[in-house]
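Each letter names a residue; structure tokens follow underneath. Both lines appear below:
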Amino acid sequence: MSDQTDELEALEESDERGRRQGGWKSLMIVIGAIVSALAIGLAVVIGTSGVTLADVAQSVWLSIFGGTLTGDLADKYPIIVELRLPRVLLAFTAGAGLSLAGVLMQGLLRNPLVSPFTLGVSPAAAFGAALAITLAGSNSLPSWIVIGSALVVALLVSGLVLSLASARKLAVATLLLLGIAMTQLFEALTAALQFIASENTLQAIVRWTFGSVNDANWGDVQVVGLILLLSVPVTLWFAKDLNAVAFGGDDAARSFGVNVSSLRLGLIVMSVVLAAVVVSFCGIIGFVGLVGPHIARLIIGSDHRFLLPFATLTGGLLLLVADTVGRTVIAPAVVPVGIVVAFIGAPIFINLILTRKTAMR
């Protein structure tokens, strides 16, 4: 009883601090949005084609409102609009979606080690996409079939993992171990598909295992961006309820009138959908859903009213920077973004494990 009282007092203190610091945290979100916009512009500029920020701004204006291409812009316009902008925007929106999914899972399960990757959702989605590609063979598949296959497998796996955790009242550390087992299983299944696949199909499947935005197009950006735009306001609507669960636990949240079961089911499904859609377009990008929320939490705190939008921006920036590094560090060769993110995310993940070793015993 005293533990629950302490948790409620901590929740009330957190709310009070949130009210006092709300103005500063809102300013940080605005600054984050401005930095994100500048980073997107700079990422389009970086390369060997001599593109400037003025060229990017003019190209965006012409693509929206129309006009006549003149001078050097006629040569640069296809590079900007058809190649770099879709790639940059897909990297940002994919990273934002994975980070938002990670925040939701971490808050609902009250553990910063949880992410779509550590629970096996991303590898399961990748297997679903790879299965659809393998069954299609040499036939070209509509993107919605690949997305649907990834989504169905991801939902089934997440439902299985969370159902087992609920039925057997598993601790979060045990849930993470179950997620690791699922990750190994679906990575093995994906490897089995690669073993029997034809050369062309194998190339497509390998793309999922590396994680890449090399083949980005405007259709990909529209789908991922739409899912993200629909998810952010919904999660913000439930931010206070998520605070109650994350800071006080299920019992304390229920005392505040939160329907914990419905909240957890709805937001977990949303996070799985976000992760599955991103994976179906970009492949397995393992650490963004873990590292993005962690960096955001260090900067802006744990109040989900501010953490949700800020972590979305942080994840987008993280993947955008990783992709920019990957395509420039050994140019003209391109390092897949999933590899670059792993180099960044692995040390932070190790640090999280070591700093929480007592809680995980």
Remarks:
- Residues 2-32+87-355 form a domain with the ABC transporter involved in vitamin B12 uptake, BtuC fold (CATH 1.10.3470.10).
- The two ends are 23 Å apart (CA to CA).
- The chain has one domain: 2-32+87-355.
